[in-house]
Amino acid sequence: MIAGAAHRAAMMAVTLFGVALVVFVLLRVAPGDPIAMMIGPGASPADIVALRAHYGLDGSLPMQFAVWLGAMLHGDFGTSISLRRDVVALIGERLPATLELAFCALGVALVLGIALAVIGTLGKRRAGEAVVDGATGLLLAIPDFVWALLLVLLFGVAVPLFPMSGRVDPSLGAQFHTPFYLLEALVTGQGAAVRDAAAHLVMPVLALALPLAAIIARVLKGALDEAMVQDYVLLARVKGFSELRIVTREALRNAIGPTLALTGVQFTFLLGGTVIVERIFSFPGLGNMAIEGVINRDLPLIQGIVLTFGFLFILTNLVVDLTVVGLNPKLRHG
Amino acid sequence: MPKPFSRTRGRPRFPALIRLLQNPKLGLGGGFVLLLVIIAVFAPAIAPHDPLEQDLMASALPPFWLAGADPAHLLGTDDLGRDVLSRLIFGSRVALTVAVVAGVAAGTVGSLLGLLAGYFDGWTDIAVSRLIEIWMAFPAVLLSILIVAILGSGVGTVIVAIAIIDWTRFARVIRADTMANAQADYVVAARTLGFGRWTILFREILPNVMPGLIALLAMEMGIAVVIEAILSFVGLSVSSDTPTWGSMIASGRQIIYQAWWVFAAPLAAVFATVLAFNQLGDGLRRALDPVMRR
After folding, report:
1. How far apart are CA B262 and CA B264, in angstroms?
2. Fewer Cβ within 10 Å of end Cβ, chain A: N or C?
3. Same domain, A50 and A174
4. What is the reported pTM?
């Protein structure tokens, strides 16, 4: 078990190194010279050389990579060129917004997906199953970007129920001491702030949650179908338990494991989806800042954010792997 | 449920055609895609107006079913007075070009790597699998935006970006498929007969993973349409004088309260196209897979 975990952690380090290498290669072949963009027209060649040295852009490429990687490992992601601030500090401010968004979406997807699977199983070979199958097929076919825009049209324009941009309404005057607005408002019991932050989350959360909910529903329904023909379900029927109780208490407990493992892996896709969804809803998270960074050719900022995402993705997979192995005795000694 | 007596009626004359008609997903999805191809090819003949022609006197006209509409502009006009329907029709050209070329490019690269990794275990598999894992650690949308920003915008760049980010979809599935096929009796038989490794891989295994590949390809084309729309939406796809659905969505977003149809029309086009490619892929998977067909 411990050897397995160590092996996985080592693999994680290899993957992360690969990610860093790809980021480095991508950004160093960029034709736009970031230094040329930063300096004014009156700068002397000496200024340019000094700036190059300052950002570690002089020396051979392998040398640059070594210096760069060393700085990354020390948590030194450099200074943002466009915002002129420490990249780590900027990521620290924006990441909580993205995490709040992603975890809310994960929660909604789980609730919605499980509900759909249970309804579909209860309505087996009746209208309920057909409706659930049709709904999951549609939810699955349409990606988060398109859902987000449809929600803008529906809840932003046609029936304006929810705010279209930002995290909180500035006119509310709420003061937050942590970057986790919703969580802080909940913990400190600020009702108005909770409602406002939640209202801002509705559309981006739904856009991210709908496709994942469909995947969860489809996989879980398949597992429930298999579970429903097992002996223990027959026994429960003989005992006279209601169908609802059999599905939610007996079958679900046995069917949910693989679904949760899959959800963990799919969570990385959801995290990736936050980039464009944040952009659509002007949500001040990491992804929105990344797109700004790309538009401004802000090298240190882009590489910091891409590496942060890479780290989150790999970490998610590691946690899922270890949880699956930990929960399954057959794999524990593999 | 198997029907034991159905075979006595004999083989239908056009089994493929009958399968197609029994499969509404395939018919509907394929039909819409075909319609789209026709629209894209004959865009100059079909479009009622020049998609770039501006008429500020006729800006933000509503679509035909709303009051104040001009029958000459069925889906209304945008803020510069350009005909929405015509822009939509011309936009299908970029969408379809990107869908087909990027889909085939991602499919070719991904399938090749998947075949190699699935058949040659050892270092080839380790290298490809690790590459897939590294690729999966990037947020796809951010990576595509980054690539287009680096290479400069344009249809060609968008296609390259999609191929670079989406080959893993094919590689993962084809690798697993190839592994399963490599253990099958027919491959063992071919090996016993003395066929070379490459012959077995491309003449024996490839045709057997083809059905899955074709279905994936159809779905990937839908995804490519969305990625192109995302890149246009961010302002990175093609130059502004070529109408694309994504750039129409982005500019419509700015005037959504004054003229929502400028936003809704291209969004509906993207929605229908993605859905059609998805259903086509799903239908193909069912129609081509001998196990699911039964």
Report:
1. 6
2. C
3. no
4. 0.88
A210 and A324 part of one domain: yes
Q: Which of B141, B234, B274 has its CB closest to that of A141?
A: B274
Q: CA geometry: angle at B48 spanning B42 and B52, to 5°?
A: 90
- Residue A272 inside a domain? The answer is yes
Nearest residue in chain B measured CA to CA from A11: B130
Which of A94, A112, A134 has the alpha carbon at shortest distance from A206? Answer: A112
Q: Which residues of A touch B229 (CB under 8 A)?
A: 145
Give chain B's mean pLDDT.
86
pLDDT at B77 over 90: no
| A22 neighbourhood in chain B, CB within 8 Å | 134, 138
The CATH topology of domain B74-288 is MetI-like fold (1.10.3720)
| Residues A273 and A308 grouped into a single domain | yes
What's the CATH code of the domain at A113? 1.10.3720.10
B194 in contact with A at a CB cutoff of 8 Å? no
Each residue of B215-254: pLDDT tens digit?
A: 999 999 999 999 999 998 888 877 667 889 998 998 898 8
Q: pLDDT, tens digit, for every residue of A137-163?
A: 999 999 999 999 999 999 988 888 898
Partners of A150 on chain B (C-beta within 8 Å) are 267, 271
**ipTM score assigned to the predicted complex:** 0.88
Residues A67 and A141 in one domain: no
| Minimal CA separation from A98 to chain B, in Å | 13
First-to-last alpha carbon distance for chain B, in angstroms, is 9
Tell me the one-letter amino acid at B71.
P
